[in-house]
Amino acid sequence: MLVLPSELTHRQASGCLRMLVQGLQVLKGPEVVVDASALAVFDTSALAVLLECRREALADRKAFVVRGLPAALVGMAGLYGVDDLLQVAG
Fold it and tell me: 21-36 pLDDT, tens per residue?
């Protein structure tokens, strides 16, 4: 399981994405699960990071699931029309 930090804004986006992609490369199994439950401070960069991580997972033929995504970020995803791309689980 990959874990998002408590803060993910434009400032942290590049470093966080690098960390997630490195983690994704060592994960075995058919599914990549990202735990977003610690995420408290974020902007739309968090969506960009998640979508790029999803792209990397799909390129590796793995399913991509996000758990614990804050309601406000789910709302942002809906506003931008990308909510269907993020498989959000409880």
Answer: 999 999 999 999 999 9
The reply to whether CATH 3.30.750.24 applies to domain 2-89 is yes
Which residue intervals of the chain are DSSP H helices?
Answer: 10-26, 44-59, 71-79
11 CB contacts (<8 Å, ≥6 apart)?
A: none
Q: Where are the domains of the chain?
A: 2-89
Close Cβ partners of 68 (under 8 Å, ≥ 6 residues apart): 35, 36, 37, 38, 39, 90
d(CA 53, CA 16): 10
pLDDT, tens digit, 9 for 90 and up, residues 34-82: 999 999 999 999 999 999 999 999 999 999 999 999 999 999 999 999 9
**Token pair in block for residue 3:** 């874990």
Bridge partner list, 31: 63
Report angle CA 40, 11, 87 to the nearest 5 degrees: 50
